[in-house]
Amino acid sequence: MKLLSLALATVLALGIQASSYAAGPASTTTSIQQIRNATAKITYGDTVLLVDPMLAAKGAYPGFPDTYRSELRNPTVELPFDVGQVLKDVDAVLLTHTHLDHWDPAAETLIPRQMPMFVQHEADAALLRGKGFADVRILPAHVTFDGVTISRVAAQHGSAAMFQVEPLATMLGSVTGFVFQKTGEPTIYLAGDTVWTGDVRGAIKRYAPDVIVLNTGDARVKGFDTGIIMGVEDTSRVHALAPTAKIVAVHMDAVNHMTVSRADLRRYVREKALQDSVLIPEDGETLNF
Predict the structure, then answer these.
(1) Within 10 A of 275 (CB to CB), how many other CB atoms are there?
(2) CB 3.0-4.6 Å disulfide test: which of 47, 177, 178, 214 passes with 153?
(3) Domain boundaries, the chain
(4) What is the pLDDT of residue 19?
(5) In terms of Cα–Cα distance, which of 155, 168, 156, 154 is closest to 224?
(6) Which of 184, 247, 183, 187 is nearest to 215 (CA)?
(7) Is 214 exposed, middle or buried (0-12, 13-18, 19+ CB in 10 A)?
(8) Looking at residue 162, what DSSP letter applies?
(9) What is the mean pLDDT of each run of 10 residues along the chain (289 residues)?
(10) Dihedral of the CA atoms 198, 226, 177, 209 (nearest 10)?
(11) DSSP 219-264
(12) How far is CA 269 from each of CA 110, 220, 260, rounded to the nearest angstrom?
């Protein structure tokens, strides 16, 4: 059994911060651990889900072409601890999509081939099966895994104007978000690589999540003055729609094309007096809800 006390002991031994926040139903078994970039471990009791693993060492890949600061190599920082700790106790992996900063060759190599892998569509499933993964599952609208209900939410990886331009539209591709629910535990909405859309608004209204994970690095491609994911102002939008929810801001300080850093977002949060609602975890930090 994956006892919470053992998990906390591990956190303390590694010198990694663990913070507790009230969100939704009383619970001591729901947590989100920020790993790096968009990689996170979501724990519901004895179930541990790994989202969007990018596991390479610092500087393993060239910067994304035709993007902001493309001269930098990715990832721009190391993992906060070794890959063995990242994969410890993981029961399944979920991919919002298969861009390099969410699913990379290191993850392909290091994740066990029998691991349950949840993906958004057949193209991503075929990609993983081609790498030898034996238990690849295409997510329907709703599915239950080990007592956790996972629902898909539509996402849009850039503006409507960007999707009018080829080959950019093909490069951006399709993405999904997830809602995680379990009886007696807080509901978590992980929006994924998306800009603000009616689907995001609809998911917040429909599911009334207690915790909302936003990718707020405001990544930019050349030729456009808006991002392909959310930025600082989206934290205000989400807070206005879900004022009691805890917002967890990630996908910063790890790949070349992010234009918003944690420091930038902290300044914005202070200016807007959102400190009690917007959480900005460091790599390796665990947030308990």
Answers:
(1) 11
(2) 177
(3) 4-280
(4) 75
(5) 168
(6) 247
(7) buried
(8) G
(9) 36 51 63 98 95 98 98 98 98 98 98 98 98 98 98 98 97 98 96 98 98 98 97 98 98 98 98 98 97
(10) -60
(11) --BTT-SS-SS--HHHHHHHHHH-TTSEEEEES-SSSTT----HHH
(12) 37, 21, 13
Amino acid at 28: T
Closest C-alpha among 41, 127, 129, 26 to residue 81: 41
pLDDT computed for residue 126 by the predictor: 98
Query: For 251, how many CA atoms within 13 A lie in the half-sphere containing its CB?
Result: 28
Measured distance CA(212)–CA(201) in Å, rounded: 12
Tell me the torsion sign for CA atoms 96, 100, 105, 110.
negative
Query: Position of tokens 């939704």?
Result: 24
Q: Which two tokens stand for residue 23?
A: 């969100």
pLDDT at 5: 36
Plot region of 226 (φ>0 → left; ψ -120 to 50 → alpha; else → beta):
beta
Can you tell me whether residue 14 is helix, strand or coil? helix
Residue type, 78: E
Tokens of 281: 């975890």
pTM of the complete model beyond 0.85? yes
Place of tokens 């996170």: 40
CATH T-level fold of 4-280: Metallo-beta-lactamase; Chain A (3.60.15)
Pick from 212, 233, 217, 190: nearest CA to 101: 217
